[in-house]
Amino acid sequence: MIGCYLGVDVGSVSTNVVIMGEDQGVLAKVYVKTQGRPIEAVQRGLLEARKMLQAEPQILGVGTTGSGRHLAAKILGADIIKNEITAHGIAALSCVPEVRTIFEIGGQDSKIIFLRDGIIQDFSMNTVCAAGTGSFLDRQAARLGIEIGEFGRLALKGRSGVRIAGRCAVFAESDMIHKQQLGHNQEDLIKGLCDALVRNFLNNLAKGKEVSGPVVFQGGVAANIGIKRSFEEALGQEMIIPEHHGVMGAIGCCLLAKEQAHRDKGMKTAFKGFNLVEATYQVTGFECHDCTNGCEVIDIQAEGTSIARWGDKCGKWGNIKEKTMESA
Is the pLDDT of residue 133 over 60? Predict the structure, then answer.
């Protein structure tokens, strides 16, 4: 068996799973749609990643990140749980040690991270405005009747991008329809949409801040060569796109899990094994009325038995489960 590290990034749109070797080489990477069922997405991703390897890997450490990181950690038996900023920052540093700015654009959110001397100094996130995310491009591509995979290639053919209002996804769509009716060609419209997303991103996240290079561009939208060009035109500098740009959060988790395993030599991973893909889980919730906090407690059950609880501010319910698991 080969020693490996497992990283899982659970987001609202996609779940990414990466298995990385001791040499930091990516042995398996999987992208699956979350579709509102994060537990099933984690199980599917883990199963697909395992199938990519010829031999059963020995998992030495597990890390989770993303909006569903706590849920994934309970299911997998994670050794570390990290926020997205830390995970993406560590992953970018592993590719470009001198990186000073990170752009990350996914399907439903986007973020910018500023680093100095390898340390994260500041960040901003957009989780509200769709016009600065990949879903904006998906919708406009569908409206134009083209595949999202062709979007970037067609944008590069645009000679002069049509200026489209990009502060709001609703206004941008109305403006694009208006410009279509005026007779602008498709390539210029697509170039204009790329420029609009870039303006939205820079105005919302980078306004008043110094965007200095090297700049690393990651997330699923980094695959869009039209967006890359629009960023480079707006900033006047090159955008560096890592080889595994779409799963950088999961890669960061692998690196952090490896770091902890090497730091704590006697540490034994809490990973529950690949057999968990066959388990059946149910997630329920209840409101605790034992104090005025009124916490909503999340309860995960496997085969009718509670295996984890969290969400309580005082630790009452979570501590009970942890003590029960320790004594079992």
Answer: yes
Task: Tell me whether residue 323 is in a domain.
Answer: yes
What whole-number distance in Å separates Cα of residue 57 and Cα of residue 22?
12
Cis peptide before 214 (omega within 30 of 0): yes
Q: Averaged over 241-265, what is the pLDDT?
A: 92
Report the C-alpha gap between 216 and 211 in whole angstroms: 11
Task: Say which residues have a Cβ less than 8 Å from residue 313's Cβ, sequence separation at least 6.
Answer: 293, 295
DSSP 213: S
- The CA radius of gyration of the chain, in Å to the nearest whole number, is 22
Residues 8 and 82 in one domain: yes
CATH number of the domain to which 322 belongs: 2.20.25
Distance (Å, rounded) from C-alpha 328 to C-alpha 325?
A: 5
Q: What is the pLDDT of residues 194-219, one digit of tens each?
A: 888 888 888 888 888 889 889 999 98
Whole-model pTM: value is: 0.81
Residues 222 and 307 in one domain: no
* pLDDT tens digits, one per residue of 215-226: 999 988 888 888
Domain interval for residue 224: 98-241
CB atoms within 10 A of CB 125: 15
Asked whether residue 141 falls in the same domain as residue 195, the answer is: yes
Is residue 99 classed as helix, strand or coil in its secondary structure? coil
The CA distance from 270 to 261, in Å, is 11
Strand order in the sheet with 110-116: 119-126, 110-116, 101-105, 215-218, 239-240
- Write the DSSP assignment of 122-174 as a string of letters: EEEEESS-GGGSHHHHHHHHHHHT--HHHHHHHHHH-SSPPP---SSHHHHHH
The pLDDT score that the predictor gives to residue 17 is: 95
Ramachandran assignment for 154, one of left (phi > 0), alpha (psi -120 to 50 degrees), beta (any other): alpha
- The CB density around residue 324, as the number of other CB atoms within 10 Å, is 11
User: Residue 132: which pLDDT band, with cuts at 50, 70 and 90?
Assistant: low
Question: What is the pLDDT at residue 120?
Answer: 93
Q: Residues 178, 75: one domain?
A: no
